[in-house]
Amino acid sequence: MFRFDNNSQRNEAIRVTLSIAVCMLLGKLLGLSSAVYLALYPTIIMTKCKDYSWMGLARVFLPTLLAASTALVVSNTFYDHPFIIWTISLLFFDWMRRRATTPAKMGAMLMPTFNWILVIVFAQHTSADMTTRIHEILISMMITALVCKAFVALFPIASKGKPPSFKESPVTAQQRLLSVSLIGIGVGFLLQVDMLSATFCMVPVIAASLQCQAEAFRQVIERRFITQVGGCALASIFTMLLSGHQSIWAMYALLLVVLIFSIASLMVKADVTARDVHADALLATMLPIQLYLGVQEMGLERTMLRGWQLAVTLGILYLLYQLFCAKRPTLQATQTDSN
After folding, report:
1. CA distance 184 to 116
2. 215 falls in which pLDDT band (50, 70, 90)?
3. Residue 332 pLDDT exceeds 60
4. How many Å apart are CA 121 and CA 117, to the nearest integer?
5. Residue 36 DSSP SS3
6. Does residue 27 belong to any structural domain of this protein?
7. Does residue 113 contact residue 179 with C-beta atoms inside 8 Å?
8. What percent of the chain has pLDDT over 90?
């Protein structure tokens, strides 16, 4: 597992491991109430980002920060009217989908959309100070940018030439309807039912809603089932290995580095498709660890609940595929799978 074909692969595995591990440890040590962002952002940046310049990182983070801030304004203004919040959210989701005319833009749609959902759902069902949450989102972005830049400088990225360009394809009304319907139904459910732990189930829903082909829709569901539910299983094993010793920071850090490096090693040696699978598995594993594992609690039950909720969500999506898409080979054959 830990044998690499070249130094570039080794450097990438080390770079990914240290960036994510350091950010997660800082999230715990700084006592942030929303430490999960210091698992979400570095994992996304180190597995998906192609441009690590300050401008490149700003292009990734700025839309997310603007989306979260706008969602906070909407939630505060219409707190007693969830239907209005939901309606405005539908307009936002449709606007985001109309702009996603290439695979890269579809991938870039995930973080702003998900952060919008996080803010409006948590604002509706908790008494947490959401302004403080926005501040912590900004702090997490700054920490992530600094840490990732540092390790990119220490373990430089080998030049891979100019990235491939994709021809823009107009988004059809059918594609917009699919995205808005799937995401809107999920958000409507979360706004009405106090089930905060299910909010992260919207990640695979967003990913599936972006697909333009029925076969790609099915593949995303099946792949996410493996990575998302499998990630919760890995997080549960990690938690059990650490049982009774989670307050020992050295042990936590060591096991965390070993786990991340194991997945990152597989990712850097894989082809493009398998790389995305490992990247998604890495994110799915880190989130429950950062969310639920604390000094005083193991969070094993909540990790397993998260796995169950993801399995149910993906099961529903697969049922929808069988009902509406199985006999239709394409939703639109002009774009490719972006996840």
Report:
1. 12
2. confident
3. no
4. 6
5. coil
6. yes
7. no
8. 54
Q: At what angle do helices 110-125 and 82-99 cross, to 10 degrees?
A: 170
273 within a domain of the structure (yes/no)? yes
Q: DSSP for 258-284, please give it.
A: HHHHHHHHHHHHS-HHHHHHHHHHHHH
What distance in Å separates the CA atoms of residue 132 and residue 327, rounded to the nearest whole number?
Answer: 48
The count of structural domains within the chain is: 1
158: left (phi over 0), alpha (psi -120 to 50) or beta: beta
As a dihedral over the C-alpha atoms of residue 266, residue 267, residue 268, residue 271, rounded to 10 degrees, the angle is 100
3 state SS of 195: coil
For the chain, what's the residue count?
Answer: 339
Residue 164: inside a domain: no
Q: In terms of pLDDT, which residue wins out, 295 or 276?
A: 276
Sequence letter at residue 31: G
Is the pLDDT reported for residue 160 higher than 70?
no
Question: Amino acid identity of 306?
Answer: R
| Residue 202 CB contacts under 8 Å (≥ 6 apart), including other chains | 114, 117, 183, 186, 187, 190
Q: Does 201 fall in a domain?
A: yes
pLDDT-above-70 percentage for the chain = 92
H or E element that contains 94: helix 82-99
For 271, the domain range is 7-156+173-325
Identify whether the C-beta of residue 38 lies closer than 8 Å to the C-beta of residue 32: yes
Counting beta carbons within 10 angstroms of the beta carbon of residue 167, is it exposed (0 to 12), middle (13 to 18) or buried (19 or more)? exposed
> 159 CB contacts (<8 Å, ≥6 apart)?
none
What is the torsional sign of CA 246, 305, 260, 202? negative
